[in-house]
Amino acid sequence: MPELPEVETTVRGLAAVLQDVRLTSVITRRADLRRAFPVDLGQRMTGARIVTLSRRAKYGLLGTDRGDSMIFHLGMSGRWRIDPEEIGTHDHLVIETDSGQVLSLFDPRRFGSVDLVETALLANFPSFAAMGPEPLGDDFTPAYLRERLKGRASPIKAMLLDQRIVAGLGNIYVCEALNMARISPLRAAGQIGPAKLKPLVAAIKSVLIDAIAAGGSTLRDYARPDGQLGYFAKQWRVYAREGEPCPCGGTVQRTVQSGRSTFWCSACQK
Ligand SMILES: [Zn+2]
């Protein structure tokens, strides 16, 4: 599943092709992904120039000179293909540019989504309205996290996966960051003191920056937008490594929390 670093990598790849480029054709090849495509997507995007490309949590945003923003989510298996050799049954949205390039949104499982909103009203988009700060943003600080976790008895892992507290963090990066910061995923969030929150925030930023630098991690069929395959899961510290050694010399264990696997090490994570 594409996580925040993959979406960031995708947006950067798309920017190389779409920045300041006019779209000459925008065609949906079926009515829906996870939900319906906007019925006026083709009408509003055809002829528009892309002036901004950005990311919010796991959403990519393409802003046009007409004041619209197309918001995409890659779901479980979505990716953009640039100049694909052929358009197949899983290419659900096809865009042509005045620079002669073709882009397709390829999504075999169709858990992705495409929405179109006025850029001025982006903050009201339902998925963004209650969302917490970006983990790589200046607003995500130890002081902010301390305030949000105060009095919370839920495990820290669950709190970090809560999009209202911090936006866009997924299971892999939460497991990795908690290991790096030496915090047990089972700890009650409100009981973690400032001395631990500082390295935790630093670890979250660090694991994301490293993954973006590596071009995004790959799980199964994720590919960079230019169609280049070959990024395979990097060597995680603990994720998916049950029974293998932790960097501290202890052994990685797996615990199920809220129905999802947590990989961690009880020797160094307290
Ligand atoms: Zn350890």
UniProtKB/TrEMBL annotation:
Q: Whose protein is this, by species?
A: Blastomonas aquatica
Keywords, A to Z, come to: DNA damage, DNA repair, DNA-binding, Glycosidase, Hydrolase, Lyase, Metal-binding, Multifunctional enzyme, Zinc, Zinc-finger
The answer on whether this UniProt entry bears the keyword Oxidoreductase reads no
What is this protein called in UniProt?
Answer: Formamidopyrimidine-DNA glycosylase
Describe, as the record does, how this protein assembles with itself and its partners: Monomer.
> What does it do?
Involved in base excision repair of DNA damaged by oxidation or by mutagenic agents. Acts as DNA glycosylase that recognizes and removes damaged bases. Has a preference for oxidized purines, such as 7,8-dihydro-8-oxoguanine (8-oxoG). Has AP (apurinic/apyrimidinic) lyase activity and introduces nicks in the DNA strand. Cleaves the DNA backbone by beta-delta elimination to generate a single-strand break at the site of the removed base with both 3'- and 5'-phosphates.
Q: Which CDD domains match?
A: EcFpg-like_N (cd08966)
Catalytic residues (positions): P2 (schiff-base intermediate with dna), E3 (proton donor), K58 (proton donor), R260 (proton donor)
Instruction: List the EC numbers from the record.
Output: 3.2.2.23, 4.2.99.18
Cite the SMART domains for this sequence. Answer: Fapy_DNA_glyco (SM00898), H2TH (SM01232)
Residue numbers binding DNA: H90, R109, R152
Question: What's the record's note on cofactor binding?
Answer: Binds 1 zinc ion per subunit.
Q: Is Translocase one of the keywords?
A: no
Describe the location of the Formamidopyrimidine-DNA glycosylase catalytic domain by residue ranges: 2-112
Please give the PANTHER family that the UniProt record associates with this protein. Answer: FORMAMIDOPYRIMIDINE-DNA GLYCOSYLASE
Known cofactor(s): Zn(2+)
Please, which domain of life does this record's source organism belong to? Answer: Bacteria
FPG-type domain sequence ranges? 237-270
Catalysis: reaction(s): Hydrolysis of DNA containing ring-opened 7-methylguanine residues, releasing 2,6-diamino-4-hydroxy-5-(N-methyl)formamidopyrimidine; 2'-deoxyribonucleotide-(2'-deoxyribose 5'-phosphate)-2'-deoxyribonucleotide-DNA = a 3'-end 2'-deoxyribonucleotide-(2,3-dehydro-2,3-deoxyribose 5'-phosphate)-DNA + a 5'-end 5'-phospho-2'-deoxyribonucleoside-DNA + H(+)
